[in-house]
Amino acid sequence: MASKGNAALEAMIEDATVDAYGDDEQLTGLFTMIEEHLAVPFTTTVLGVEVTVSKIDLTADSIVAVCARGCHRQRIDLLDLPLPTPAPDGAAWIDAYRHWAGR
Question: This protein's superkingdom (predicted)?
Answer without folding.
Answer: Bacteria
